[in-house]
Automatic annotation (TrEMBL):
One of its GO terms (molecular function) is metal ion binding. Residues 227-325 form the Isopenicillin N synthase-like Fe(2+) 2OG dioxygenase domain. This is Isopenicillin N synthase-like Fe(2+) 2OG dioxygenase domain-containing protein. Belongs to the iron/ascorbate-dependent oxidoreductase family. The keyword Metal-binding applies. Keywords: Iron, Metal-binding, Oxidoreductase. InterPro entries: IPNS-like_FE2OG_OXY, IPNS-like_sf. The keyword Cytoplasm does not apply.
Amino acid sequence: MSVVPQEISMDLPVVDLDVYLNNAVDSPEVKAECEKAAKALITYGALVLHDSRVAEKDNETFLDLLEDYFAQPEEELGKDERPELSYQIGVTLENTEKPKCAVDEPCLNVIQRLAPEERPLDISGHHPDPKCRFFWRMAEQPPYETKFPGLNADNVVPQAPHIKERWNPAMQQWGTSMKSAVEGLTEMTAVGLGLPAGTFKDAGKYGPHLLAPTASDLVKYGQKDTILAGFHTDLNFLTIHGRSRYPGLHIWARNTGKRIAVKIPPGNYLLVQAGKQLEHITGGLIKAGFHEVVVNERTVEVIEKRKQQFPDRPLIRISSTFFWHLNSDHDLAPIPKLAEEAYRLRAEQFNLGRDEGEEKTYPPMKVGELVQEELKHIALMA
Ligand SMILES: [Fe+2]
């Protein structure tokens, strides 16, 4: 596999799922596109994915619905909370989830190694994030008894009449689009890493996948340099995003380099980021990508523009996010040949003067155990 280039571009690679879907799996086009996908995830922990099956209007319908949902009074939203299930289904209200990084040594070291001008906004206060979220499960019921029933609970449907009737179709339509796009990418990534195409997809067949829009009230939290979601990585396998109406997502390439303000082109494009499960199974060859959501200059510009253009719409930033997971009962352990490659790449980076910090270990565990450990850190699980 080719190495991380010395100077990396600040534009994320665009990977075309159409090439994979429309050509023979052993064709040179497919091989090249899959290698591009794997390399992008190794270098950036992220990529832009093109999938012509995905319709922009389904994202618009979804964003309209979620703006209307989160514009409801807090007591109405509270009916959809399930703290007894660690908020892994239904709504999480603002100021519940805390960014783990503020009290986590290895994560603080990642920030420390960044040049000061490339660092995220200061999270040292360990304040909870001012964001709300809804978790809508898009999973297939496993045909076996799961050791993690709490991570596989039934969905909550909001009850207000103007929301209820639109809910299922909009959530299912957009969720299914993002799910099939990200599942296609799991195959491309496996092929690009020299593995059988179904390696990851099969291990995630019964994963507790979540359509997980977050919402930030820009009337309350619309000032420049407000942190909407503090610097963190995701605990799942791959996260896929549709375009948000407001910019503000920053990512870091391989957690050592520059802060990148994400731009997703309009049309059939999605952003994908690597999570902790992918990092674990590749032995750190692909690293979970750090990111933050903040109000930056461009967010403020769009807020002002939308106030003029849509004065009657709620001023809420919805992120169009889907978390793809491996099965909770899957035995997670680094694939040996990828772990070797990770070791080699780490040494190479070190020789290039890029210190990736203390070496991490990836002990064997169930995927569900990794998820539960992470949830404790972000204050969602007692
Ligand atoms: Fe995230």
